[in-house]
Amino acid sequence: MKSIKQLAEKNDLKNVITAFIKLIGLAKLSKKVNFKRKSVVSLTAVVSWLLATKFARHSLYRAQAAKEFTIRTARNVLNDGRINWQRLLCLAAKQLIARLKPVIDRRRRLALIVDDTLMSRSCSQKTELLAKVYDHNLQKFLTGYRGLTLGWSDANTFLPVNFALMSTGKPHNLVGHPAVSNDQRSVAGKRRCQAQRPMNTITLELIDQALANGVPAQYVLFDSWFSSPKMFWQLKQRKLDGVGMLKQSIKIYYRYRGRAYGVKDLYQRLAASNRKRKEHYLYSCVVEAHYQDHRFPLKLVFVTKRGNKSRYLVLATTQIQLQPAEIIQLYGRRWQIETYFKAAKQYLALNKSQIQDYDGLCGYIAVTGLTYDLLAWLERQNKDDRTIGDLFYLMNTALPDIKFLDALVYLIAVLQKVKKDINKQVAQTLANFLSYLPAGIRKVLRRQV
């Protein structure tokens, strides 16, 4: 696939969003995600307006109303409990992956990445299923949710694929109103039951939903929070190989050369042997893990913890054919989901929603994921290595830099005056420079030069 050229003058924000909506086929997906409204307002129109509102950095209460509908209509669509927002994000990611597949090397390992992030809501007390959530960074409980996210990566592009807004199953940790409905026959009821069950169980459900909707993957990457012999075994039953960081727990044992060891005891055993430490890792070995009556091999890699040579991390995978360097490289791809969380919170206001309805919050997360998909798609198509943050600000029309434009206009005007005296190569360089400028700057230059 040829690299798509820089956004032309006609491709303003509205046209970019329209092209993206057509790319994922949102009009056809509306029926598949159970969008049912008696009005003439389509899901495509509402989602397009929500994406534009994201780039304008406006909340739903301060955004500029669309010509076809009011802001209240958009909020009602988000709060509609019949819409399957999880499936919408899955199907949109599937369409983008299908577009990327022809340019992905067959040797590239496709992976799903799972992690959760804290979505704090300190000023809200009446939101449905709001709970006390433990923040591991601050070492204290905060009011909010856990945003469980499943992403897809080919090592170049990360796309959010599925999500679940997790609450708590313990009544004494519940702060907001209890669930309005737990009816498993409805989408809203399933969503609320999902929020109150264990996170590892929901992780497998999200993976099953992604696979059922056609998202291709060979591996699942996760940190120590999701890591356990049970998780590795259940992923293997789905024909997926897990790659995760092991907990250094004394309660979990692995069999190595006929004896059961905890992770710390196994490290001491390897350190006491005559094995030499490798350049990029400490030790590697194959052990036998067990879950209930099932026994299966795991390959462990002990890696020095960055910034503290006296401590180590333990990576594990059920794909024992991988070399230790390949396991380390594959697990390092997990950092892409952390980058998504940072971009979603910093640029897309993931944790700053004023919506009080639980269904509305799920819709808000789905729209945030679609916005990131749009930015990731543009980043993949651009020639230059532009970051998600740069793309976000380029598409934000509310941030012009007048002083810079004045200086640039003066520079171009001077260069064009002496254009006759310079050779063709410099003239071509000038033309190339102008063609690579963002569309907004080229508009100003053509008006003033």
TrEMBL record:
Q: Where is the Transposase IS701-like DDE domain?
A: 57-256
Please name one Pfam family that this protein belongs to.
DDE_5
What's the protein called, per UniProt? Transposase
